[in-house]
Design a protein that fits this description.
elongated, 9 helices
Length: 332
């Protein structure tokens, strides 16, 4: 029996519009008219019967009424317009079209199974995953210390770690690629929730042979004529540097822009400028770090997440942990 597929034939759920190519590389469009939306509920039934070659046995294994299974197979063949099974009394066998269809169905169902296991594993309270973003300047000491402390009570929780500048992390947060991120300045946006956790003093970093190097404290206005090395626009620390210099009465003359604080320290050590930077994890030779007086030269560190986004148990646990570290997030 070959079913003719005419343009006016009514499908069991909806009418199909468009042509089906031999190979589909793009994601399936899950419109009511698409093949994937139409056929997906019946694919597991088809694979179960194909595996057992017996409708009654397949119904028992899948714990569904035999009548439900039989109707689903008939509908599937009607919608496709081909016979997938040859009937032999109570048993069935695959037709050539059925064998072709089964190979792809088993791959598709296998992908669904793996996807389900993956998201279930990521949400497991004991061994799930947290996608966590943070600033480059917090990667060498702060974040490793936080994760070590958290895993003392949650030893099997896994982390997907992303280092980036603030705006890029917020974009990834909005895209659903991150669960939480540590950033600065603390964002203020209607679609985000952000909590201030700590603040970090910024220092004016100068070469060790600089005219200010013998000082311990300096007003930022005293560096108004200096060349500055800074992070690139878009970095939170660059915005803070520009704002602090403006508050001190000048616009910084930018000599070099970079993407990483320790690289900037190297440029300062080479005598190529001065910089406003947070304290280093390890003292850097060739530079002197001066306390800035006369204004509040700090950057606030906060944690942010997408408003209304449900947390998995491991994400909720790590969020509680971070919020519990208010005022003591950063190493002494």
């Amino acid at each position: 029996m070959v079913h003719e597929r005419s343009s006016g034939r009514r499908l069991s759920q909806s009418s199909y519009v468009g042509d089906i190519g031999a190979t589909v590389s793009a994601p399936a469009e899950l419109t009511p008219e698409s093949w994937s939306a139409l056929l997906s509920p019946r694919l597991a039934y088809f694979a179960g019967v194909a595996r057992t070659e017996h409708v009654t046995r397949a119904a028992q294994e899948m714990q569904v009424p035999q009548s439900t299974l039989s109707r689903a197979l008939v509908r599937l063949e009607q919608d496709l317009g081909v016979d997938l099974f040859a009937r032999h009394g109570r048993t069935v066998s695959l037709t050539p079209a059925g064998r072709t269809f089964l190979a792809s169905v088993e791959r598709a169902l296998g992908e669904v199974e793996r996807a389900a296991e993956s998201v279930r594993a990521d949400a497991d309270p004991a061994s799930g995953k947290v996608a966590f973003g943070f600033l480059h300047t917090m990667g060498s000491e702060t974040v490793p210390g936080l994760i070590r402390a958290f895993r003392a009570d949650h030893p099997r929780v896994r982390f997907s770690l992303v280092q980036n500048y603030g705006e890029a992390m917020i974009e990834r947060l909005r895209a659903g690629e991150l669960d939480l991120c540590l950033t600065s300045p603390v964002p203020d946006a209607p679609d985000l929730v952000a909590r201030r956790l700590d603040e970090q003093r910024l220092r004016l970093v100068v070469p060790d042979d600089h005219r200010l190097a013998a000082r311990k404290r300096v007003r930022l206005a005293e560096a108004a004529d200096e060349a500055f090395v800074t992070l690139e626009p878009g970095y939170g620390l660059r915005r803070i540097t520009d704002d602090l210099c403006q508050e001190a009465g000048f616009k910084p003359r930018i000599a070099f822009e970079g993407e990483e604080a320790e690289t900037l320290r190297g440029l300062v050590a080479a005598g190529l400028g001065v910089a406003l930077l947070p304290p280093p994890a390890v003292p850097r030779p060739g530079v002197v770090e001066l306390t800035v007086t006369g204004q509040r030269a700090v950057r606030e560190i906060g944690v942010a997440w997408l408003d209304g986004h449900p947390d998995t148990p491991p994400v909720a646990a790590f969020k509680r942990f971070l919020l519990g570290r208010r005022g003591r997030l950063l190493p002494e």
